[in-house]
Structures are given as structure tokens and as C-alpha cells.
Write a structure and sequence with these properties.
Nucleoside Triphosphate Pyrophosphohydrolase; two-stranded antiparallel sheet; 4 strands
């Protein structure tokens, strides 16, 4: 799955932000996430860093989703799509940002092994 979002002032760190975003966007919890990649972006205000984690989803209850994306219908819909974690399946979708799509495609086997505890 790909979950996105920023670190909020109430988050004690990047991993806490990840857990909050998973709760907000999926109503879910994770097994122990592992940081596997960083993507650096040059922004007008400085440098942005995206932290890429891999983890297995422990549980999910879509009725528990709470993010602002669900309280503002003008933002569109947020559907959950399940795909096999294979290069073929992942290259068939528009995964953003492109650097993430490239990293995952090049490392499917390694990412699968890291997430199998």
C-alpha cells in the first residue's frame, strides 16, 4: 500500500506520522515498519524528504477512516485497491511519485523479504 502525508506538530517523529496516516486513511494498524528508502525533493522553501517504509498491514477497518480527505467531498473519492505485490501488477498502475514507482519495481523481491517477519 502507499500512504502519504506529512509530519504534523503532534507527531513525535516520522514513524509516528506513518502510523497516524495509516489510521486516518485505512483505519488500520501496521506490523513493525522498516525504513527502506528516502526520496529527496528540491522545493522552493528548501529540501523535502519523503521517507519510504515497508510494512505488513495488521488490520484495516475502513469505517474508522478519519482523515480530512473523507470529510471534504470536493476532494474526490479515496478507494482502496488491492494488488498483488508483483512487478507486473505495480507497473500497471500510476504509482506516484515516479521515484517511488521506480524504487519499488527495482526492489520487489527485497521489499517482500523485508516485510516477511
Amino acid at each position: 500500500m502507499t500512504i502519504g502525508g506529512g509530519v504534523e506538530p503532534t507527531d513525535v517523529g516520522v514513524e509516528a506520522a506513518l502510523h497516524r496516516e495509516v489510521t486516518e486513511e485505512l483505519g488500520g494498524t501496521l506490523h513493525t515498519p522498516q525504513l527502506v528508502h528516502l526520496i529527496t525533493d528540491e522545493l522552493d522553501g528548501g529540501t523535502g524528504v519523503q521517507h519510504i517504509f515497508v510494512a505488513r498491514l495488521k488490520d484495516m477497518d475502513l469505517s474508522r477512516r478519519t482523515g480530512s480527505e473523507f470529510s471534504k467531498p470536493e476532494r474526490g473519492s479515496y478507494d482502496v485497491i488491492r494488488l498483488p505485490f508483483t512487478t507486473e501488477a505495480l507497473t500497471g498502475i500510476d504509482l506516484m511519485p515516479p521515484q517511488l514507482a521506480e524504487f519499488i519495481s527495482a526492489n520487489v523481491t527485497a521489499l517482500r523479504s523485508v516485510s516477511e517477519w
